[in-house]
Design goal:
Layout: H1 3-43, E1 46-54, E2 61-70, E3 79-89, H2 91-96, E4 103-117, H3 128-133, E5 138-150, E6 154-165, E7 170-180, E8 185-198, E9 201-210, E10 213-221, E11 229-238, E12 241-251, E13 255-267, H4 268-275, E14 281-294, E15 303-315, E16 318-330, E17 333-343, E18 346-355, E19 368-376, H5 379-385, E20 393-404, E21 410-423, E22 426-427, E23 430-439, E24 441-451, E25 454-463, E26 470-478, E27 498-509, E28 514-526, E29 536-544, E30 548-557, E31 561-570, E32 574-583, E33 586-595, H6 599-605, H7 608-611, E34 618-628, H8 629-636, E35 645-654, E36 660-668, E37 677-686, E38 689-698, E39 704-711, H9 716-721, E40 732-741, E41 753-767, E42 770-784, E43 793-804, E44 806-816, E45 819-830, E46 833-840, E47 844-847, E48 856-865, E49 873-882, E50 887-896, E51 903-910, E52 918-925, H10 937-942
Parallel strand pairs: 4-5, 48-51, 48-52
Antiparallel strand pairs: 1-2, 2-3, 3-4, 5-6, 6-7, 7-8, 8-9, 9-10, 10-11, 11-12, 12-13, 13-14, 14-15, 15-16, 16-17, 17-18, 18-19, 19-20, 20-21, 21-22, 21-23, 23-24, 24-25, 25-26, 26-27, 27-28, 28-29, 29-30, 30-31, 31-32, 32-33, 33-34, 34-35, 35-36, 36-37, 37-38, 38-39, 39-40, 40-41, 41-42, ...
Amino acid sequence: MSFRKRLIVFFLVLLVAGALDALFAPFVVARGVRLWIWWTAKQQGLSAEIERIDAPFLRAVTIRNLSVGPGKGAGGDNSFAAASVVVDLNLRGWILGEHASLLRSARVDGLSGNIRILRTTRIAEQDWHAWAQLLPDNFEINDLNLDVTTATAAVRLRGVLVTASAIESGRFYARQILVISPLLRQTFANLRGATSWESARLTIAGIPLARGLDLEALTIDLSRLQKRRLGIDLHLDTYGGTLRASFQGRAREKFSIDLAGSASNISLAQISNAVGFLEPINGSVRASKFTFRGDPSEFLDATGSIWMEATDFAWRARRANSVMIGATYYNRRLEVDQLYVRQRENELTVNGELLWPKELKSWAQLPFRGQLNATIPDLNGFAQLFGATTGDFSGALAAEGELDLVAPEASGRLAWHGQGVKFRGVALDSLGASLRLRGREATLENLEARRAEDFLWAQGTVELTAGHRFSGRLTGAINDLGAYAPLLPAAWRWEKIGGGATFDWRGDGTLAAHSGTVQLFAHGLQLPVAPLRMPLDVTLVGSYSPQDVFFRTFKLASDRFSLGGFLMLGSNFVELQAFELSLDGARQMGGTLFLPFSFERWRTSRSLLVALDEEQKFDVDLAFDHLDLGQLAGALGEKSIVTGILDGKLAAFGLLRALQVTTTFRLEGLGREPTNSSIDFHARLADNRIEADATAFFGISNPVALRASLPVRLEKKQLQAGTAFDRAKPFSLALDCPALFLETLPNEWRAGAERGLVTGTIAWAGTLQAPTISGEASLLDARFLPSPPWPEVNKLRAQVRFLNTEALIDSLHFEVDSIPIQLRGRLTTSPPVFGLTLTPEKGAIELASLLDSTADLSSIRVLGEGRSDRQPHLQLAFARGTLWPPFVSSLTITTEEPGHLLSFQTTYFFRPRALDASPLLLRSVPAAQEAGFELEETERELAPRAETSP
């Protein structure tokens, strides 16, 4: 073939190839861009969705409705969406060039996003090379709406426009930028500035943020993203002053930053007002420099420095005329060249250095050296500077000294002295102490505080070496504890507090093993905790060791009450030996107690279950000899739940899971007013079962007998879960009440009952998770006077049958406001809640007033007898509440309109003491006026069983 023919064939091949390229390029490019976006997003832990990609031949690629969100299982909450993205691809340069950018230009319209940074992000694992290749030569972002949220702050951008070009300046516009933090809340609106985009460095400049506050330049350096570096430079003009900061971030194995900045002649008042601090700050920063270098997550291994001079500082109640600080931190060493604070006549000067070891076992191990000099004639103002409440302190304080714990042999001395010092109104006549370091020993010399005849004095030594062996003494006397009430817990300050005390403590040893003696003698001690509400004399004399605390003298006494014995507090037990309790000079209780409880765990947790030790045995032997419970409560100033004369014995032994208990009690003269009543109680716990038998005598009533057999699981985890009773094993409970006259009960037991006769027998059986009940009971001629606003109930009689899991009320007749009411119903319980269903038995009950369904009830009243054709009639009433404490919480009423078949249901809630609560007004309609209401006997008996249970 000749050269001419070959040349023709070659041009034909090129022509065909160009035609094929023009034909298939749009499809290939579109599919390639979609695949590349999907793959890149997946590499970053994201997912991407695209509606459509248009890729015309030799023209820019348009991506319609691009959305990016967290990938499956990524656990993030970052998302972005763009209405359209137009990019001019540089495929040839990207494929053939080593550092060429993939994009010549990019335009994004309608971009919105949400970034949540609520935990540490793994910045070092990002693909920085891929981000660097996406930097275009020119770009434009229209209508950017972005929300950035961190754990402590939030930033919102609305209507942002950014254009940037490598050959000309661009524009920046933001309709709104909102910044919210605990100390800052500010909105910047209609911000305008210019941009410059050169060598992958974006500069935004010339933006007036507020009057007197201008953003001169903000430069974001993206030129070294491939080397995993990011730079930010900031320059602010602030009311005649300047603030400059430079930030360099490096993502290697760990993310680290280099931060350096300076500020001069900055008015804190003006800048806090312009920026929007929630609480204004006054003063000015004359000059400041600061640096930081390292990983923020490993702050103690970083380096940094600060030098600042501030004048006329004021924030809240904090005031200072001058504050100067110069400090450097490097190699886990903090060097304070100077910390100077001047506040009117108050002056504080501190300098020194502090070493921070790799492993810090105790704050006492921090080696430091430094000097302190303080002259504080106005202690109140100086305390406010460090956050104290205004008026808490007053007086003058002076301190000076130098300490050195860095050298092999510690040395130094620190002394302070106060004059007229007052804290929360408690004035001290004198206050002073000194601390001396010598070699490996620190000595507290004569710590002393005096107020009139009260004093506190202490001295001691402690070794600075491992173990920290110490010896010391603390002694003092308080004539009137009430004078120190402002220093006690806030809940006690308004309670009755009084009495005086002297105390003395001596101890020595190490922090791990120490021993000593303690003495406390208190007279007329009165605190708002049981049993110290009434004035008592307290005597504690004992010693302690690492194993236990033993009080050989333990006594609480008053003119009527005395409790004493030998008290021992061990690491996991409390023991009270040979103790006696006397009332009005008569011995009424005695014995021994060994309880496997840790007093220390109870003190810190306030939970007896947490303090319980399952591996220690109980050992209890108590005897009660005519103990008057009401007299005991009165002597201690407490309210008595149960009153009467108690005789009996209690013995318990063994581990909790195999505890054996036997007890016999007799309680006579029940009630605050002496009555001819008594209760005999016998119980035994063995093999995880309680067998109990009780007989109660109330005046002329026949004895009431109770017999019970209950399975229990006495393990700590069961007690904590509230499942001490074994619900899967059988139990039995029987109550026999031949004839009980309610008026013979103690007054506080009657629950408003004035008279009446109760008879019946009730038995429970089965298991606690599926109990059954049988028996019957009757109530005759009862009268109740409940507390207002509930009405008086007279001539109450009821017949109740207990069947399986419910109680059927065959008849319930009573009078309210002299109006007879006849009901029947059903009672179901799931302790501690109950449900009571009631329906009229004879006649009808008319709702005399209709309340709004949102109304609360205070009571139920009956107006009288009568009939109105327009008022609805009661079909069914369903009351819910609790058995203990007894309370009706809600009432659901089903009514019917006269002459209609439709029913209506309304639920009311009881709030008897609420000012806006109303009574529910009813009217009784006699049976003679309600034709057809009377039911047949069989229908009347079956009707309650067809009702809905609670």
